[in-house]
Amino acid sequence: MTALLEVRDLAVDYPVHSSAWGRSRALPALRGVSVAMGEGETLGIVGESGCGKSTLARALVGLVPAAAGEIRWRGQVLAQLPAAQRRAVRREIQMVFQDPAASLDPRMRVAALVAEPLQVFAPDLPLAQRRERVLRMLGRVGLGAEHVARFPHELSGGQCQRVAIARALVLEPRLLVCDEPVSSLDVSVQAQIVNLLRDLQRDLGLSLVFISHNMAVVRQLSARILVMYLGRVMELGAREAVFAGARHPYTRALLAAIPPPEPRAHRPVHAVTSGEIPSPLDPPPGCVFNTRCAWVQDRCREAVPPLEDAATHGVACVRWRELAR
Questions:
Q1: Under a CB-based contact definition with an 8 Å cutoff, are residues 255 and 243 in contact?
Q2: Domain coordinates in residue numbering, the chain
Q3: 147-161, 222-236, 262-276, range with the lowest pLDDT
Q4: HSE-up of 243 (CA within 13 Å, CB side)?
Q5: Given this model, what pLDDT does residue 217 score?
Q6: Average of per-residue pLDDT values in the chain
Q7: Crossing angle of helices 157-169/187-204, nearest 10°?
Q8: Left (φ > 0), alpha (ψ -120 to 50) or beta: where does 86 sit?
Q9: Is the confidence at residue 177, as pLDDT, over 50?
Q10: pLDDT value at position 270?
């Protein structure tokens, strides 16, 4: 069966300009990222800030170009498609950004914000049908007719994010890429938005890419989890396999950092990390996590470990079998 979305050995570079040297160099934001997902699946992507999660999201929707590798949509390589076909695919893949206030034009009212994608991708749609689709989608995300004429500054953070979700879904896409959509919201509002996304996925048959640094939130939505660090994949597996039997030291450290339900509850520390994430301009040799790993050995610094057992529960660590004992 053909995957809905497939990423193969994806690499993304950002040019970094130096006034001191008068030249630019490439910052490797992603390296060797491979993952596939099917219809109706939710893929959770986790990792600390600066690990490449948002870059991967932007590459999926075509906002940043690939330096190497490829992205396939229903078996077709996106970069090889004619412009008209790429435009059609762009309609099927939509994105919800982290900061709803920044992603919505403050000069536009809610109705115009939600209707704008229809004006771009379906300009021949009659005005009455456009209005009906806008109102129907606003209703699906929990907003009513009283919100239609408001500006973004007249809405709460949660309401702004609901508008952003309605705007992304009004084109009836097959894949929704959510780049930390709840990180800027209060905890109670976060739960509402997560529940909303779950309901929309069930009702509309959506596939979701849900990106967060919060493992607990990702667990609520995701069927599979992709763990990233410094632009590379550390672990990829089914949700319960990752949470119950994390293989990579970095994944174990992320799980150990989840706040316990009871403040005094004892939580075993599976891994110890120290220091900051290295600069992606000067990544460490071998495994990029070796500068912070409690179990590092000399061989960890010799070569970049491949993602072993990627088809079931992939892990990029040369010692994972020893640590699993």
A1: yes
A2: 1-40+63-222, 225-325
A3: 262-276
A4: 17
A5: 87
A6: 90
A7: 20
A8: alpha
A9: yes
A10: 45
SS3 165: helix
Q: Does the pLDDT at position 271 exceed 50?
A: no
Token digits for 176?
């929704």
The candidate with the shortest Cα–Cα distance to 138, out of 99, 95, 104, 167, is 167
Q: What is the pTM of this model?
A: 0.91
Residues 6+ apart with CB under 8 A from 308: 314, 315, 316, 320
The whole-angstrom separation of Cα 174 and Cα 169 is: 9
Residue range 1-40+63-222, CATH number: 3.40.50.300
Mean of pLDDT values over 15-35: 83
43-60: pLDDT as tens digits: 999 999 889 999 999 999
pLDDT score at 17: 79
DSSP conformation letters of 237-286: EEHHHHHHS--SHHHHHHHHTSPPSSTT----------SPPPPTTSPPSS
Spatial distance between the Cα atoms of 250 and 47, rounded to a whole number of angstroms:
9
Instruction: Examine the pLDDT at 290 and tell me if it is beyond 70.
Output: yes
Tell me the C-alpha distance between 311 and 187, whole Å: 35
Burial label for 131, CB within 10 Å (0-12, 13-18, 19+), is: middle
Q: Are 179 and 98 in contact (CB under 8 A)?
A: yes
Indicate the residue type of 55.
Answer: T
Q: Which residues of 164-186 are buried (b: 16+ CB within 10 A; e: fewer)?
A: bbbbbbbbebbbbbbbbbbebbe
Give the DSSP per-residue string, 30-78. Answer: EEEEEEEE-TT-EEEEE--TTSSHHHHHHHHTTSS--SEEEEEETTEEG
